[in-house]
Design brief:
Shape: elongated
Order of helices and strands: HHHEHEEEEEEH
Strand content: 15-25%
Structural class: alpha/beta
Oligomer: single chain
Number of helices: 5
Helix content: 25-40%
Number of strands: 7
């Protein structure tokens, strides 16, 4: 990188250059700094000027501001990933019987994804999202609390499952199932226009 490229990058990152403010005349400022005469010796007991200290502090402040501005222009892909989505399984109402999932029933959910189980720890299951059908956005991790309340599903590390939730809550028999081709087709039909 040459001086011109460095100067262009610093100018682009300078937070002081907003709106219609003209850029500083760097050549004039450098010439003024190089041709300044020395400060005459002062009488003992008087304070020395603090100009060099102030100039150094200003240089550090500008460098820091430029670095922070440059950091803000980095791509979102380099930023840390978002916190995982946490879903909770509702407690069962006793001896409820589960109906088979249907397109209409699946569509009522606000969150739907296919994910592989990465860990099962006590009552908590963590998924690596393989495909979002609805909700979730760019999140890559989902955690399900109280997974033992799901009557029809037993989670195993490495297996893929289709999971649905309504406003962060998973119904005990609402369509969360092992990911098999027939169920994937049902999910695609339910969420195809999403």
């Amino acid at each position: 990188m040459n001086e011109d490229q460095l100067l262009a990058r610093l100018r682009a990152a300078d937070p002081a250059l907003v709106g219609g403010t003209p850029p500083p005349d760097v050549d004039r400022l450098l010439e003024a700094a190089m041709t300044t005469t020395q400060v005459p010796a002062q009488k003992s007991g008087t304070r020395r000027p603090r100009r060099p200290l102030l100039l150094a502090a200003a240089a550090v402040a500008l460098t820091t501001a430029g670095a922070l501005a440059w950091q803000g222009t980095r791509s979102p892909a380099s930023s840390p990933s978002a916190a995982p989505l946490v879903l909770r399984v509702q407690t069962a109402d006793g001896a409820a019987k589960c109906a088979a999932p249907s397109v209409d029933r699946l569509r009522t959910n606000t969150t739907a994804f296919e994910g592989a189980v990465t860990s099962v720890t006590g009552q908590q299951v963590t998924f690596r999202v393989e495909h979002w059908y609805r909700g979730g956005g760019d999140g890559r991790t989902v955690t399900v609390d109280h997974a033992e309340n799901l009557e029809a599903v037993s989670f195993s590390t490495g297996d893929s499952y289709l999971v649905v939730a309504q406003h962060g809550r998973i119904d005990t028999c609402g369509g969360t199932v092992w990911a098999e081709p027939q169920m994937r087709d049902l999910y695609r039909q339910a969420f195809r226009d999403q």
